[in-house]
Amino acid sequence: MEVSPSSARLSFALPEGVFTANCPTREQLNRVMSKWSPLLLAALADGPPLRWSELRRKASGITEKMLAQTLRALEDDGFVHREARPVVPPHVEYTLTPEGEQLAGLVLALMSFIVDRTVADDAKAG
Amino acid sequence: MEVSPSSARLSFALPEGVFTANCPTREQLNRVMSKWSPLLLAALADGPPLRWSELRRKASGITEKMLAQTLRALEDDGFVHREARPVVPPHVEYTLTPEGEQLAGLVLALMSFIVDRTVADDAKAG
DNA sequence: CGGCATCCAGCATGATACTG
DNA sequence: CAGTATCATGCTGGATGCCG
User: Residue A50 CA to chain centroid, in angstroms?
Assistant: First the structure.
């Protein structure tokens, strides 16, 4: 397989099409990078399945609307699995799918980097 | 070093504070995940320093405002270095700082994952 | 060429109330 | 408990024009 010179130096060789305006991966990327997605992925990556109310408490500051909306998007994209047990009161659990765990790993790495950097900056600032 | 049980199973142990509403890392994360940041990081990660006009062409669809705004944010956060040569016509080059390269690596991994997944989905869909 | 200032539209997000 | 529906808003992002 031939590799074009311009992308040879990158460990992740992105196809040029990614930079195109209407590339579907851009849309997908923006969905995954939306305000609350990383936080929910992180919340689910760390630990056991969580219920709606547990997620709401963990993702401090999220509104019910955004929780529902973000969970729905992650579920539609195949990153989150929703399991509802037909009891009263309702009992719903959210878990990561295998693909969701992959994604969460990458997102966690990014968050971890930011956290470390922010902590370091704070230390410098006193 | 002791690790709390709830975070022991994660390769990246995020401090609990990340989930707090006013956590500064959330703000930083959202800035880095803004619509155009990943694309510009990717554009600069792959290859030589780029000029304003080159970046504009590469990040297809970006407006001048968002290009300026995003570059400025990345520069303020220490991820991008701006070098202006005082000639006429002006000649300005943008490069990644060491921290920017770290960040770009993580972002590229994420983009690469999304791209692969999207391609796989497209293949299935025909 | 490489911006910045201004104005404007649309969507992401938010607050609140209601429901199965 | 686990959502949906509705209304409000604010900020991101876009179009245009001007400047060094």
Answer: 15
Q: Each residue of B34-77: pLDDT tens digit?
A: 889 999 999 999 789 999 999 999 998 888 999 999 999 999 99
B5 confidence band (pLDDT: 50, 70, 90): very low
Lookup result for tokens 């311009």:
A6
Contacts of A39 in chain B (CB under 8 A): 18-19, 26
Q: What is the DSSP letter of B89?
A: S
Q: Residue B8: phi, psi to the nearest 5?
A: -65, -30
Q: Which residue is nearest to nucleotide C14 (CA to C1')?
A: A63
B9, B34, B60, B63: best to mutate for the A interface, most A CBs within 10 A = B60
Question: CA A34, C1' C18: Å apart?
Answer: 28
Q: Label residues A7-20 b or e (16+ Cβ within 10 Å = b).
A: eeebebbbeeebbe
Please, which pLDDT band fits residue B11 given cuts at 50, 70 and 90?
low
Q: Residue A108: is its pLDDT beyond 50?
A: yes
Q: Residue B24: which of B70, B77, B62 has the closest Cα?
A: B77
- In chain B, the percentage of residues whose pLDDT exceeds 90 is 58
